[in-house]
Request: fold
Amino acid sequence: MAKYLLQVSFTLDGIRGVGAQGGSARRDAAEEAIQSVGGKLEAFYFAFGETDVFVVADLPDNKSAAALVLHVTAAGGASVRTVPLLTPQEIDAAVAQPVAYRPPGT
Reply:
C-alpha cells in the first residue's frame, strides 16, 4: 500500500460539526472512510493554524486516494490537500533509475 499525508481544512460547517460531535467522532468518521476504500488509518491529529487535521493513511493506490478525497471534499465540510509519502528506500530506487533527460539549451 502507498502512504499519504492528508491535510484537512474545515469549512465553517465542518467546524460546527466538530463542535457538535467532538474530535473523536471526526477521527472515527475518517477511519471509516479510509477503510471503505481498502485503506488503514495510521495517525490522526488536530492542529492549530491553516490546517485543522493531519492524517497519515495507508491506501491501496492513487485511485483510492482520489476517491476518498473527492468524496470528503464534495460533502462540503472540508477541503483536503493530499501528499504522497515516500520511504527512503523508494527514493533510493528513484535515484538509481536512469532517466533520458536533456536540459534546455543542450
Remarks:
- The mean pLDDT is 97.
